[in-house]
Amino acid sequence: TETCLRIHGYVRYDATGGDRVYARTPGDLDRDTWGKLARATLRFSTASETELGTLKTFTELRYNWNGGGDGE
C-alpha cells in the first residue's frame, strides 16, 4: 500500500523591551526590562487507502517558552 506523509509546522519568536515588560513589583517598574516568547508547532499527517476507505492520522506537537526579566 501507499502512504502519504506530510510534515509541516512553524516557529515563532517575539522579543519585547522597554519599561514595565512583565513588571510585578514597584521595584521592577524602575528598571529597563525585556521579555521573549518562543513557540513552535510540528505536525505530522498521514493518509493510506484501505479496504474500508481512506485512513487518516494527525499528530501535533507544540512547544511554548516564555522568558522575561530584567536582563539578568
TrEMBL record:
<keyword id="KW-0812">Transmembrane</keyword>
<dbReference type="GO" id="GO:0006811">
    <property type="term" value="P:monoatomic ion transport"/>
</dbReference>
<keyword id="KW-0626">Porin</keyword>
<keyword id="KW-0406">Ion transport</keyword>
<dbReference type="Pfam" id="PF02530">
    <property type="entry name" value="Porin_2"/>
</dbReference>
<comment type="function">
    <text>Forms passive diffusion pores that allow small molecular weight hydrophilic materials across the outer membrane.</text>
</comment>
<keyword id="KW-0813">Transport</keyword>
<protein>
    <recommendedName>
        <fullName>Porin</fullName>
    </recommendedName>
</protein>
<dbReference type="GO" id="GO:0015288">
    <property type="term" value="F:porin activity"/>
</dbReference>
<keyword id="KW-0998">Cell outer membrane</keyword>
<keyword id="KW-0472">Membrane</keyword>
<keyword id="KW-0732">Signal</keyword>
<dbReference type="GO" id="GO:0009279">
    <property type="term" value="C:cell outer membrane"/>
</dbReference>
<keyword id="KW-1134">Transmembrane beta strand</keyword>
<dbReference type="GO" id="GO:0046930">
    <property type="term" value="C:pore complex"/>
</dbReference>
<dbReference type="InterPro" id="IPR003684">
    <property type="entry name" value="Porin_alphabac"/>
</dbReference>
<comment type="similarity">
    <text>Belongs to the alphaproteobacteria porin family.</text>
</comment>
